[in-house]
Design the sequence.
């Protein structure tokens, strides 16, 4: 590859960031990392609103993944951390980028929760936003990059579905009960799940970094959403385990509160319009392939 870039990655130590940095380096790009800990090449403290702005000096692209974990009970203080860790960090990056004579492109994580919690229509990037705390987070998070986008710099927002990996995230959490044979559908199982394999998501980020045509919201999901019942059946088949113990909606709500309502109980069928239009090739386009590869 001739057009190699210098790329600043935040959240580089996370589930997505770790394989993404490796994939970018394998493509010949130079990767710098920005972290709260000494493990990064550069440091920031988002809660204290400070960063080493030299991290952005001379970079061609910023890939912003960092943010407080969503997968915890949403107390008021956790909600503030979820929001501020994403919005304030984006502002820090954007302010530093605006100081550069050659401004870097911005590829930011976002979520399909932008479209809300429960929708009967199939949504694509042109669909309007929806209800809920995570929708508000996604709007503010994407919106925080507006001052950079307004200068004409390419900005893309990766509205990511449920990332499937045995190493972490939703699937890893489900594996223990399913392996023990006490897994099952969640609620009535009719809610649609829009998912993507970790490998495909990493390649979608690489694609977004390298492909100037990708701009604005990009739905980072597989081409086919599945119902939770079909997902459950396929997971049982891949693991060779029964899936006869449903997890009732009321139990999910009691255990996880609003977090459960806006994640495992949410009903969103999302189309990856931009990725299809720009001919992105999925390695795992079906849920069976993705689960077989992950497990
Ligand atoms: N995984 C999914 O299913 C999924 C779906 C939709 C959207 N996303 C979004 O994609 C991004 C990356 O996801 P991931 O699964 O890789 O996340 P992850 O494994 O939780 O990693 C996130 C990284 O963000 C940094 N971080 C954590 N808490 C922070 C805080 N309070 N303030 C500043 N930085 C903080 C950490 O890096 P340092 O310790 O190095 O600072 C951490 O490694 C997230 O923003 C997530 O919301 C993920």
Sequence:
């Amino acid at each position: 590859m001739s057009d190699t870039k210098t790329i600043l990655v935040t959240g580089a130590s996370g589930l997505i960031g770790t394989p993404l940095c490796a994939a970018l380096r394998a493509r010949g790009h130079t990767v710098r990392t920005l972290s709260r800990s000494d493990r990064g090449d550069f440091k920031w403290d988002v809660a204290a609103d400070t960063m080493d702005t030299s991290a952005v000096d001379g970079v061609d692209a910023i890939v912003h993944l960092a943010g407080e974990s969503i997968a915890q009970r949403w107390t008021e203080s956790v909600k503030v951390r979820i929001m501020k860790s994403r919005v304030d960090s984006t502002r820090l990056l954007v302010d530093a980028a605006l100081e550069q004579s050659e401004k870097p492109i911005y590829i930011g994580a976002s979520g399909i929760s932008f479209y809300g919690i429960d929708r009967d229509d199939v949504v694509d990037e042109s669909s309007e936003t929806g209800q809920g705390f995570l929708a508000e987070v996604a709007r503010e998070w994407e919106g925080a990059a507006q001052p950079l986008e307004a200068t004409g710099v390419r900005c893309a927002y990766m509205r990511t579905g449920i990332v499937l990996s045995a190493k972490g995230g939703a699937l890893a959490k489900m594996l223990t009960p399913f392996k023990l044979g006490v897994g099952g559908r969640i609620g009535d199982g009719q809610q649609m799940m829009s998912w993507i394999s970790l490998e495909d998501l990493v390649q979608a980020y690489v694609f977004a970094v390298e492909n100037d045509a990708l701009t604005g919201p990009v739905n980072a999901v597989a081409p086919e959403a599945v119902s939770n019942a079909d997902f459950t059946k396929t997971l049982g088949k891949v693991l060779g385990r029964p899936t006869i113990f449903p997890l009732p909606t009321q139990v999910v709500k009691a255990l996880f509160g609003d977090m459960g309502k806006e994640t495992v109980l949410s009903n969103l069928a999302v189309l990856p319009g931009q990725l299809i239009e720009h001919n992105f090739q999925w390695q795992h386009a079906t849920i069976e392939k993705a689960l077989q590869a992950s497990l």
The chain is about 40% helix and 20% strand. Residues 11, 13-17, 35-37, 40, 46, 65-70, 81, 85, 89, 109, 111, 160, 162-163, 169 surround NAP (CB under 6 Å). The first helix runs from residue 17 to 26.
